[in-house]
Design goal:
heterodimer, A: 3 helices, B: alpha+beta, globular, HotDog_dom_sf (chain B)
Chain lengths: 150, 139
């Protein structure tokens, strides 16, 4: 039997970002390093927060960072397995620029046996001038939760 | 001005396109809801944490706007931060969210927003939000 393949975000992204909520948002893969992943949320008129301003709502930015967190964890462990978000904190630094997409870059800075800690930023071109800062904690889900008797 | 003259709860474009609707008003605060569907799906047959967070956040703003309307105050609302706790998996069911305003100050508001499905005592997520209330035409 061959070794299971190491999780590769660039290879997995087209499939992972195609379906469901993140597919609807149109998230795109940008880049990855040893312990981080970068995704992009393209600007779209029907994702606006306030009607008077052409600025993306903050909800999709949380989705972007949540998804980038998951992929950063799988990229760091090298294994794609079910994880659950325990908590996620987003500090908004400034509004995103009008009619501009947002980039989410998240790193997994610490792994324990069952928890993964992540931090990241959402920015619109310059990572040093972020739209938001994020910190979160994830747990691995043992086995397939759908088979656990209620 | 009577209640019927007031515009119905206005939700942002993002909320409308995700399918978030006003379910009812409860003690003066809106209960928002979203049905399960592919647009909110994360891992198969479950809500995506981002979609749940989006619902919590929209419910937070909607609740705060109602509370401000009650006090005849007009502000431009700006997000400061949000911390979401994910408490149990969101299943393939209609999900509700409602805000509780913990503190309504002059410049900032602190809210707790809760999301549940068919059992209100079993929350699927909750959020704490700080929102800046700026003057309608600037900071």
């Amino acid at each position: 039997m061959s070794e299971p393949q190491r999780f590769d975000p660039a290879t997995a992204a087209p499939f992972m970002l195609k379906h469901g909520h993140v597919g609807w948002l149109g998230l795109k893969y940008r880049d990855a390093g040893e312990d981080w992943v970068e995704l992009e949320l393209p600007w779209r008129e029907d994702l606006l927060g306030e009607k008077s301003r052409n600025i993306l709502a903050s909800g999709p930015i949380i989705s972007l960072l949540d998804m980038a967190s998951g992929m950063a964890i799988w990229n760091t462990t090298g294994v794609f397995k079910a994880i659950a978000t325990l908590d996620l904190r987003v500090d908004y630094q400034r509004p995103a620029r009008a009619e501009t997409g947002v980039i989410g870059r998240v790193e997994c800075y610490r792994l324990t046996r069952s928890a993964a800690f992540v931090r990241g930023v959402a920015h619109d071109g310059d990572p040093a001038d972020p739209v938001a800062n994020m910190a979160g904690c994830f747990m691995s889900i043992a086995g397939d939760t759908r088979r656990v008797p209620e | 001005m009577s209640r019927s003259d007031e515009p119905a709860l206005e939700l942002p474009a993002y909320a409308r396109s995700l399918g978030i609707v006003l379910d009812r008003i409860e003690n003066g605060l809106p209960v928002l809801a979203v049905d399960f569907g592919s647009m909110v799906e994360g891992r198969p047959q479950h809500f995506h944490g981002g979609a749940t967070s989006g619902l919590l956040e929209v419910a937070g703003y909607a609740g705060l706007r109602e509370a401000l309307k009650e006090q005849r105050r007009e502000h431009r609302l700006k997000p400061i931060n949000i911390t979401v706790q994910f408490l149990s998996a969101g299943k393939m069911k209609r999900t509700f969210a409602k805000a509780r305003i913990t503190r309504l100050g002059r410049r900032n508001a602190n809210l707790v927003v809760e999301a549940w499905q068919d059992d209100r005592s079993r929350l699927i997520a909750s959020a704490v939000m700080n929102i800046l209330m700026a003057s309608p035409d600037g900071d």
